[in-house]
C-alpha cells in the first residue's frame, strides 16, 4: 500500500521557520515529480512547490518564492519543504503529493498520491 506521511507541522510565530518532511512507503518515487500543496479553511487547495524526479527543476508560486525551498532525498524516499520567513497567511494544512510523471506541475489534479496533511499555524 502506497503511503505518503507528512510531519513537521506546528505552531510558529511570524518570521519563524519550519521544515516539513514527507516519507513515502509502499513504492519508490525516485522517478516521479513530487510537490507540496496547502489548503486553508474555506479556500481551495493551493500549489506551494514541486520538484522534478531528479531534482533538476523546481517550481514555486510567487507567494512563497524566496521563502520556501523544496528538496528530496531519493535514497530515503523522502520529500522536504523548508519554510522560512513564515507569515500568518501561510497558515494551512500542508499536503505532500506525487505524480505519475517526472516533470513539475502546479495543478493538484496532476498528482495521483496524497498524504493526509500536516497543520501549519503562523501566529502574528
- Count of distinct strands: 11
Helix and strand string, N-terminal first? EEEEEEEEEEE
Helix content bin? under 10%
Q: Which residue ranges are poorly predicted, with pLDDT under 50 across at least 5 consecutive positions? A: none
Counting DSSP H or I runs of 4 or more residues, the number of helices is: 0
Radius of gyration: 13 Å
* Fraction in beta strands: over 45%
Features:
124 residues; 11 strands; mainly beta; globular; 4-stranded antiparallel beta sheet
Notes on the structure:
The structure is a single chain. With 124 residues, this protein is mostly beta strands. It is built from no helices and 11 strands. The protein is 0% helix and 49% strand. A hairpin with a 6-residue loop joins strand 5 and strand 6. The chain is globular. The mean pLDDT is 96.
Task: Offer a quick outline of the entry.
The chain is built from no helices and eleven strands. 0% of the residues lie in helices and 49% in strands. It starts with a strand and ends with a strand.
Topology:
Blueprint: E1 3-7, E2 10-13, E3 18-25, E4 34-39, E5 46-51, E6 58-59, E7 68-73, E8 78-83, E9 92-99, E10 111-114, E11 118-123
Parallel strand pairs: 2-11
Antiparallel strand pairs: 1-3, 3-8, 4-5, 4-9, 5-6, 7-8, 9-10, 9-11
Amino acid at each position: 500500500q502506497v503511503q505518503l506521511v507528512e510531519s513537521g507541522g506546528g505552531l510558529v510565530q511570524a518570521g519563524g521557520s519550519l521544515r516539513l518532511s514527507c516519507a513515502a512507503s509502499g513504492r519508490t518515487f525516485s522517478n516521479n515529480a513530487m510537490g507540496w500543496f496547502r489548503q486553508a479553511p474555506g479556500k481551495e487547495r493551493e500549489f506551494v512547490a514541486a520538484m522534478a524526479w531528479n531534482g533538476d527543476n523546481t517550481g514555486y508560486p510567487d507567494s512563497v518564492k524566496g521563502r520556501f525551498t523544496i528538496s528530496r532525498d531519493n535514497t530515503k524516499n523522502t520529500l522536504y519543504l523548508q519554510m522560512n520567513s513564515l507569515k500568518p497567511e501561510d497558515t494551512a494544512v500542508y499536503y505532500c503529493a506525487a505524480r505519475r510523471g517526472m516533470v513539475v506541475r502546479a495543478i493538484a489534479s496532476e498528482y495521483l498520491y496524497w498524504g493526509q496533511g500536516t497543520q501549519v499555524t503562523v501566529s502574528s
